[in-house]
Structures are given as structure tokens and as C-alpha cells.
Amino acid sequence: MIENTPPVAAREHTVESFTREFLRELNFGQGVDLDRASANDKYLALSRTVRHYLTTRWLETLRNQYRDQAKTVAYLSAEFLLGPQLENAMLAADLDEIANESLRALGVDLDELRALEIEPGLGNGGLGRLAACFIDSLATLNVPSVGYGIRYEYGIFRQTFEDGAQVEKPDTWLRLGSPWELPHPEHAVEVSFGGHTVEAEGGNDGARTWVPDWRVAAVPYNYMVPGYRNGRVNTLRLWSARATHEFDLQIFNAGDYAEAVRARTFAENISKVLYPEDSTPQGKELRLQQQYFFVAASLRDFLETVLPADFDLHRLPDRITWQLNDTHPVIAVPELMRILVDERGWDWADAWAVTQKVFAYTCHTLLPEALEVWSVDLLGRLLPRHLEIIYRINEEFIEEVRAAFPGDELRVRRMSIIAEQPERAVRMAHLATVAGFKVNGVAELHSQLLADKVLHDFAQMWPGKFTNVTNGVTPRRFVRLANPGLSGLITEAIGDGWITDLEQLRGLEPLADDAEFRRRFREIKAANKRHFADVLLARDGIEIAGDAMVDAMVKRLHEYKRQSLKLLHIVSLYEGITSGRIPLDAVTPRTFVFGAKAAPGYVRAKETIALINAVGATINADASLQGRLKVAFPANYNVTLAEDLVPAADLSEQISLAGKEASGTGNMKFALNGALTVGTDDGANVEIRKLVGDENFFLFGMTEPEAADLSARGYDPGAYYESDPQLKAALDLLASGVFTGGERGGAVASIFASLTERDRFMALADFRSYMDAQSRVDAAYADHEAWSRSAVLNVARTGFFSSDRSIQDYLDRIWGARPVTQNR
Ligand code: 475
């Protein structure tokens, strides 16, 4: 490798050198003077300047990685919900102060530039954001690792509201260019699809030859993933689909120019758009194409370019773990088998022995309908060889089950990788569990329910395979950057070690009893609220009181998450006030903040959004409620908005039906920023409550066993509706059409019926308990001192939820990889 001198030595940067670099980028990169530069010119020049500083470290990291050949973690994920890059890169590179000073001297407004940044929304929600937190922590913990995913040209749709109804617009995040990516078309790899298989010539056991009938090129786009001030910059490699030349030639030669151009588009469609379904896979052919596309490219990339040419693949388990982020990348399992058996000529048994040591699987759900299956028909058409391989894996697996549980054919049918009903289909979670050397859930309760229920048969067969790694969030983005006020206060009190060792927040515990500390904590929260109010006004034209309680429920719109229960709380308050049951001056001023996208085809979720907006409009228009109740539902909740909301929140709503939310990660972000949680005993809420203490958490609702029991006994929501007058009044008010201009059909009728007739997630059963919890919230909030004491304790006791700790757990329990220290 050629050693070259970097343009700017990373250790020696000064305000002057930074200014020079910035102006040079402006002149030679954008072709403008400072006087004539647009804000976008300045944003791009600044981003590239920051990028240059990181590049030196990046190249160094790559060189070391190649030299050391240390065990590497490849995080395979169809989604990386990165959020804005500029500030995080400046922070990691330790350039934030220098850049600030330099720009101030030049008269450039950094906030204006930051506001221009369009976040890469390459994910739906929790799963994608978790992947982004994890690569941040992998870099900060000095773990040799690479993220692999898809560079969608359109990320998660931009949500707008028209008359309160969600309307989806394309997310054109690349329209102004992205300074954070580096395309490498010369390193494109080919990915094949379709065709048939024929007998192989090699004669090794299990081999066949795949004769595909079309191919696309996968072009890597590299993103830097800087560790926090540790000199390491890891790589995130996202693949973009491009038509191959072969593709062109065949058709152009056939003389049909228009058809040839159309065919190009067909190939390039693969990475065009992120599927907007969260937790409800659609089984669409294009989605399987996407999955195989990025997995095949990533495997090839690692085997052929990251590993040395003479590497003995029998040692693969010493060099890599492929972490499968849910089942989306699981087609990697038959792909590795195909490479080893068909391309490298290994016998089946040898290949399977290695394959079973390199994949580990993370499950993110408990809902049966969220478990991905691919119809045999579709999979066989698109990936005929992979289907054959899956069949053979299944045959051998079933023999194993029969040997372990003789005569138990029901069990065989339950566990088979191939489902027979309602159509023949491949169960990707079963394939992942059979092939993976570890399977983990994402919170204690979730991992337990996986082993006890969802994958019970597998846990009986291989108890040692199952483990837990509780999720976490990166403290760099979600505390240090999002909440500079609180960060400053913490650092003043305990030093800045917490940024990479979040358990140090424990040092704040005694300060919860310090009145002066609490006062400053409250002041920061108040300033964050004012800032959030400014953001909402500028971004959405929504006006909120700067000082009311900020009560936040932000997450994808799903019935199991129960936004409808939150809505019932609001309607019940409104009903109480308008009927005179609740005196107005007894109402704690609250701003209810919602953020939620619904999958475009999820009708009930969209109806819920429309209803929240309708109730919001009515309440917000009621002059007598001014300064008391306000509903703010900014459209298009994303990472950028989260960074402004989370530090401002007082109350975090985590109200899923127990046993349904795998973990949640928003719950962690809020607690770490000093919001108190009103929540069920679900997902990571359980662990949050244990850590912060019952007295600093508002628990309500059934436990998972209670909910399961009620469901088994036969749940009748109508009985709750009839027997709780307050619940009945709220539902009746909703049904009366007062919020919808007299309209009682449509969303109103549909949501009313779904709650009172089926109520799959038992919102009505938890209503009473939820209302009581909210009364406790009001009472607690009235005592400012006690509330802020609890809030400080929430911050002090939730350091466990750093994604650094999650990654350390993955290292210890699953990967067996080790941090490698860089020379700083
Ligand atoms: C859980 N997304 C949270 C979070 O572990 C948990 C599914 C299919 C297709 C596209 N996206 C998905 C998810 O399933 C998802 O985001 N799951 C979430 O993963 C991280 O904290 O409880 O619901």
C-alpha cells in the first residue's frame, strides 16, 4: 500500500488550518468565493473539511485492519437510520470547538448550515436506528468491524398531513448531494438472479451449478464511522444497484434501444426505495431482491477484498462473525453454502460446519405476523440454487430433530424451516436459528419470551444457543450532542468520562439531593423546552407553551404500541373538562407531543393518525383550554427532530401491551435525558424501572402473564366499555363525531369498533390503570423539587443503556472478538 502524507496532520489542527481548509474547499470544491457562497455551498465545504480530517484516520484504520487480520464483526442490516452526520463527525474528530471558532470569525452561521442537512433516513424505526447506534459504539470501542447495507435512493417516506390524514411523499435525501459518501464504481461486484441449476462437474458432495439469467452490479458507497476521539474510523458500506454492461449489450445488440433503457431501470430499481413497513414484512419480490442483493455483495466483498487472497476459509470463524440484524439478511446462509460448495468445491459437511460458526442472529420482534416467510414459489424463481440448499439444510435439520425427539412429528412440523400452510414457504427465523451459533433477543423479557414461546422448540433443543443482549443508544448523539446543556452540567459535576463510560452517571446520584443542582437541572430542561418550541414553530408552524409539561409519545404507529390508549387519555381529559367533572384549574398544563409514521398500507394505523389530528385540532381550537392542553403532532418525525424533542421531554410514554414490544429504545433516550416514564412492564421498560426504582417510574397495566391469561380466558373489551363510566364516556364522545365535524363514520367508526369489539392489544383492559398512573403523574409533577429529584435519578441510573454496553455484551456473549487499540 502506498504511504502518502495526509494534507493535514490530524493532530495538529488549529483554527487557522481549519479556516484554510474550509476556504479551499469552498473555492476549489464548490467553485465560489465566501461572499458568493450559498448556504449549501458552505454546508458542503464544511462537511468536506471535516471529512478530510477523518480521512487520514480512516486510511490508517484500514491499513491496520489489513495488517492485523484481527477478528472482525460484520453487521448486516437492511437499514441504517443514521440521522444527521455533520455534528457527529465534528464531535468525534474533536473539531467542534475549532470549527465553531473558525466559522464565527468568518461570519458563517453554523446553525444555519446544520439546518440544511438532510438526514439519510435509511431505516423505518427502532431496528434501523439501533444499527446506527451500534456502528457508532463499535468504532468507539475500537472493534474491527464493518456495517453492510443498502444505499436506498429514497429513504423512509416524508410524511405530510392533508386535512389531518397522512400523505406520503418521496424522501429525496440526495437532492443536494451527500458529502458523506464516497462511491467506488470500480469496486462494483456482480449479483446474479433467476435461471436454473444444472449438475456440477466437480463431484464434491452437494454441489450443483447455478445458471442465472440476469445480473446487476452492486456499487459500494463508503461512509466513515468515526469512533469518539479514539483515532479509529470504521466503514459503513452501502450498496447501490446499477445495470451491468452485459445487461446493456445483450439488449442494445438486439436493437431495441427503448427496451434496453427500460431494462436498466429495472436493474437499478433494486436499491431505489426503502420498504416502509415496520414489523410487518410484505413478501414482495423486490424486497427479496434487495435482501439478496446486499447480502451477496457484502459476502463477496469480505471474502474477496477484505480477506487476503490466500486465506484458508476453514479459518473463517476465527476471522469473522456475521451478525444478522433480524431475518432480512438471512439469505446469507445459503449464499455462503453456495460459495463454499459450488464455487470452492467443498463437501457439504465441511461447508456446513464452517457456516454454522460464522452467523449469529438477532430477533427484534414477538409478533407472529412480523416473522418473515418467503413463498417457495417466489424464492425458487428468484434464487433457485438457494432454495435447493435450504431444502437440504432442512432435511438434515429434521433428521436431527427426529433423533432428539423420536416419534414427535408434530414438533417436526412446528420446527421445519419449510412451512406447508397456508402455502409452502421458507421461515427465515427458523433458518436463522438453525444456522446461527447464537440467537439473541433485545431485552431481558424479550429474550425470555423468545425462548419460552416464539422459538420454544429450538430453545429446548439447543438451550445454549439462546442469549440476551439488551439494546442501548449512543450517548454521543442522544446526550452529548442533543443535550449540550445537560452535558455541560454533568461534565462540570463528574468530568467528561461519562461520554464513553456511561455508568459514570452514577456519580450524579448524590446530586439529586442537592437543591442547587436540581435548580440548574430544571433550568436546562426549561431552556430545552423553549428551544423545542422554537423548532416546532419554525418547522411546522405549531405553537406550544414554553413551560407546560412535555408529554411525548414518539414511535411508529402500531396497534400494539397503543397510541389509541394515549388518545383515550386525552379524550377522557377533554370529556371531563367539558362535562364539568374536572375543574379546569385542576388540570396540569400539558403538551401532548406525537410523532408517528404509519405504513402506507396499514389502514387502521392511518385512521389512528387522522383521529389524533382531529382530536388535536378540536382541543387546540378551544379557547378555554389555551395554556392548559395542547396536542402537537408534527409530521415526519425523524432523528433530526428526536434530537430536539428528547431533551425537552418531561414524560415518556411507553405503553405497549406487555409482551409485545421487544425492547424499545426511545424509552432509553428519554430516561437518559431526565424524562420520567409512564409505562407498562414490557420490553426494556422492565429494566429501566428496576434501575431507576419504582418510585421514579409510573408503572401501570397488566403484566405479560396476566395479559396472556386474560387472552386465554377470552377477552371481552365490551365488558370494560360497559362497566367503566369514564371509559364509556370517552369512547362515546369519540364516536359522537364532535372531533370530526359531525362525521361518525370512517376512522371514527372503525377505531371505535376495533376497540370495543376486538381490541387485539387490550387497550380497554389497561385504561383504568393507565388513567390512575396519569393522576399519579400529575400529582408528582406538582412537586417540582421531588419531580426533578426523580428526573436526576433517572439520568444517574440509566447509564446501563449505552450502546457501548450492548456492544461489550455482544463481544463477551457472542462475537468473541476483541477491541484493537489504535495508535492515537
Ligand atoms: C422493535 N423493524 C423494538 C427495536 O431492537 C426494538 C421490521 C421489518 C421490516 C423493517 N423494519 C422492521 C422492526 O421490526 C423493528 O424496528 N423492531 C424494533 O426493534 C430494536 O427496540 O422494540 O419493535
TrEMBL record:
InterPro entries in the record: Glycg_phsphrylas (IPR011833), Glyco_trans_35 (IPR000811), Pyridoxal_P_attach_site (IPR035090)
Keywords (A to Z) from UniProt: Carbohydrate metabolism, Glycosyltransferase, Pyridoxal phosphate, Transferase
EC number: 2.4.1.1
Record PROSITE patterns: PHOSPHORYLASE
UniProt catalytic activity: [(1->4)-alpha-D-glucosyl](n) + phosphate = [(1->4)-alpha-D-glucosyl](n-1) + alpha-D-glucose 1-phosphate
UniProt cross-references to Gene3D superfamilies, sorted A to Z: Glycogen Phosphorylase B
Cofactors required: pyridoxal 5'-phosphate
Family in the record: Belongs to the glycogen phosphorylase family.
Function: Allosteric enzyme that catalyzes the rate-limiting step in glycogen catabolism, the phosphorolytic cleavage of glycogen to produce glucose-1-phosphate, and plays a central role in maintaining cellular and organismal glucose homeostasis. Phosphorylase is an important allosteric enzyme in carbohydrate metabolism. Enzymes from different sources differ in their regulatory mechanisms and in their natural substrates. However, all known phosphorylases share catalytic and structural properties.
UniProt-recorded name of the protein: Alpha-1,4 glucan phosphorylase
